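Form 12-C: Joint structure prediction
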Amino acid sequence: MSKTPLLEVKDLVAEVDGKTILNGISLTVNPGEVHAIMGPNGSGKSTLANVLAGRDDYEVVSGSVRFKGQDLFELEPEERAREGVFLAFQYPVEIPGVSNMQFLKASVDAVRKHRGQEELDAPSFMKLAREHCKELKLKPEFLKRGVNEGFSGGEKKRNEILQMALLEPSLALLDETDSGLDIDALQVAAEGVNALRNPERSFIVVTHYQRLLNYIVPDYVHVLAGGKIVKSGGRELALELEEKGYSWIQ
Amino acid sequence: MTPHDLKQQAQQQLAQQASLDWLSLPQKAQATFAALDMPTRKTEAWKYTPLTALLNTPYFAHTAAGQVDESAAADRLGQLGDVSRLVFVNGHLHPGLSSYSDLENQGIVTLFSNANDAQRELINAELGTAFEPQQHVFATLNYSCIEDGVLIQAPTDFKVQQPIQLVYLSSGEAQPALAQSRVLVYGAAGSSLELIEQYDSLGETNVFHNQMTEISLQPNARLTHLRLQVEHESLSQVNGLHVKLAAGSHYEQHALAFGSALKRNDININFNGSNAYCRLNGVFLSKHKQHIDNHLNLEHGVPHCNSDTVYKGFITDSSRAVFNGRIHIHKHAQKTEAHLNNKNLLLSKQAELDTKPELEIYADDVKCSHGASIGKLDDKSLFYFQSRGIDRATAEAMLCLGFVNEMVEQFPNTAVIELARQRLAEFFNDVDQLNHLWTLE
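Section 2 - Result
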């Protein structure tokens, strides 16, 4: 059965301050698939996630990205988000003075409006947010605190998963969600991700270590080095990398 | 009019009024005032303060009468729950809007004009002692004629349960006029008190409000001081706050202030006994062509005292703001720990901010820091909002509100936070993109 790809990246070249970071990436993600992007530090894997989400620190030099058939680069970051692109940040920003609840509500309102869904009233939204908090083992007070303000590493990452659960994206980009997490926090985060897996939703999981992939089992693994995909395979590729290290591939 | 004419006008005006006869201060203040020059742009401490509002309006030719529509004024007072309240309209106590008989009966709140002998003695001993008169010409003007004032006295080892709300309402007068008011807070040893000062207005106003607040905290006394200066932008105000801290006392201030035609805050903190603590937490906002000026001076005169000062500024349109924060560590003030920071959001190319954190240290064993920053909204934060589907304009608005709210949400009184948010909603009402957002909870 042939599917329409959700995401088609072709020969993508991107640079920052004149330095090439992505040097011809091609990648096709179909609905429901989980792709892991692995690679050593500086290989460009985080850049890929950020370029797709629309961060303007990076300049796209050439290549194309189609998301649901449309040119992704014609969309502002907020339009991408409303269309269903979600980036779980490696380093979520702290925003004191804006409560997590305020932020989440504004975000969900914007996305729902775009999708033609009815705006949730405050009580229904609170209820929904609290339910998701519970699943992610976050206390309800968590919603009243400033966005990521004084959150532990694990709380920040779980807050990203919470946002993902509320926004129901079609493509989730997880940028080193495992970094800075102990094994318990990692499991909780991974369970949160797995609960969102469905035949329509796709994931690109960016990670340095194969550890995360024990919990979020990918369909495909790509190894990035020097801004290029140097090897692709199934899950077993991650295990092989774990055993032999990145030097094996380079 | 020149500053000199202005001064003469004020003197003539005040000469027609009588001070309380048992007060020794007015005579001294008159002499000091006569010897001082009114500030000009060449006066260092007034370098960035425009005097046009003062020089072009004959405020000093008349004293405010303080008439007000009582029901409109009552709506302006906020819902602060169980408080003792004194309301002043253009400097005059309004008995109908005030309610403080409980604390009056306990001798905690007393008008100068009702003071008994012991209180008169206290007022004579304390009033005018928390600052250097030569450096505060408007303070000497205020004390040149004292028809009345408020004494707030927290008794020894006593926690005053009810917060005291002082409301200074500015309203329109028949002609531009001078309004003066003053309060003396005396926290006896081991006492504890919460004071809420609300500077508010009923629509446009043509008064010049010259306010003095002096605070004297005795050993181990505590004062929590909330200040909202949320008047109409037509107001001109010079506001002096002078604090003396004895050993082990604890003074904590949280302030929200809007700019206006002229608004000048002088805050002067004197550490007179060891192990005293002072926290100054403030946020000021200016828009349109408003001006706001914050002059903070912390005199660490003795060892083992701590101070923490954080002031944030939000400046937009063609408005102008000044922050001058000085920490002065005297020679013997060893083991002082003092930190001061001023962080500003400057949102318009026409807006101007002059910030000057100063640290003068004459002791060698202290821990101090000072800093200031002026910035625009953070790109990383904006991207975070956008990546969640929030458009850039809304993201900018939310970040602005967050910047201000970070300070306001630290106010240790939820009813005051609510009142502050109402006034902020009014303030943001005509700032593009910010108008509908403040209510978002």
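Section 3 - Comments
Chain B has two domains: 3-273, 378-441. Residues 392-408 of chain B form the longest helix (17 residues).
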